[in-house]
Amino acid sequence: MTPASLSTGRRQVLRGAIAGTAALALPAWSQAGPYPSRPIELVVPWQAGGGADVVGRAFGAAVARHLPQPVVVVNRPGASGALGLGEVVNARADGYRIVLSSTELTFLNHLGLAKFSYRDLRPIARLNADPAAVVVRADAPYATLEQFLDAARKPDANIRVGNAGHGSTWHMAAAALSEKTGAPFNHIPYPGGAPAVLALLGGHIDAVTVSTAEVSGHIAAGKLKALAVMADQRVSDGFERVPTLKERGVDLSIGIWRGLSAPRETPDEVMAVLKAAVAKAVREPAWLDSLRKLHFSTDTYANDSVLADAMARESAFFKDLAGRLKLTS
């Protein structure tokens, strides 16, 4: 081999080594080509049929117009959302597994139900938000919130209030109402808001605290009635005549937001793609129609910065509430 050919060979080996090192240094998403190059998994930490599941699937359909790959919903219910959220906290930060996060993300750690906090996920956007409502059967003997609370204060009343599981937003809502009014409740957990509503319809419990959207159809059908909404202002779309808690002298507003989050270390480039796609998807007529049909709010989208600030405030609020009520597991 001549000196010239030896030099050429060494240069080729060196170039190959440099290229290989550079490839190893690149984040996984860039090695696979432009993001996304395969389907994105959207983990919904609640069972099928509930409010979170409906929002997740409607979003998946709407965002399909703005991404080159589909968003596939996968339900991972359990532990008041901690199971599904935890899966994404620990997932590879490449943008191919995101989660439908909700209010629970801000307080599960304060209840001892999760080791992670909202800081362990990176917010993408808030999709919608709806207040909680205090709901009973249409044939219940309570015409007003005051009558319901008075009944709960009677000795051995055992008023059973269903929720979406211990540590869920709806459990926290009922617990906060109990603290504010001195009306004791027997909190009955279910796998989600939808099963709790079905239990109420079947007469197995006395009331539920769930989102207005999850009971609007049953209220319109005359099967259930709302005694109050936990909002700062009255809610439209079938709830115009339902008073707020504040109108009834109870200074309390609690609701649920549903948004999207990614693993904390997800690259900025990937986040930019996701945020841009979401911002376009929430303007899709099909998405808005889906929310309207289900009586979800359609004007509560917020970007990642607004959502991050809201989560910080909520985390502080729920930490204080959990401490006062001694709800830590």
What report would you give on this structure?
The chain has 329 residues and is of the alpha/beta class. 40% of the residues lie in helices and 19% in strands. The protein contains 11 helices and 10 strands. The chain has helices at 3-25, 28-31, 51-63, 82-89, 145-153, 169-181, 193-201, 212-220, 268-281, 285-293, 304-325, and strands at residues 40-44, 71-75, 97-102, 121-137, 160-163, 186-189, 207-211, 224-229, 255-263, 302-303. Strands 1, 2, 3, 4, 5, 6, 7, 8, 9 and 10 form a 10-stranded mixed sheet that branches. Helix 3 runs antiparallel to helix 10 and helix 6 (169-181) packs across helix 11. Residues 1-31 have low confidence and may be disordered.
Describe, in short, the structure shown.
The protein is α/β, with parallel strands linked by helices. The chain has 11 helices and 10 strands. The protein has helices at 3-25, 28-31, 51-63, 82-89, 145-153, 169-181, 193-201, 212-220, 268-281, 285-293, 304-325, and strands spanning 40-44, 71-75, 97-102, 121-137, 160-163, 186-189, 207-211, 224-229, 255-263, 302-303.
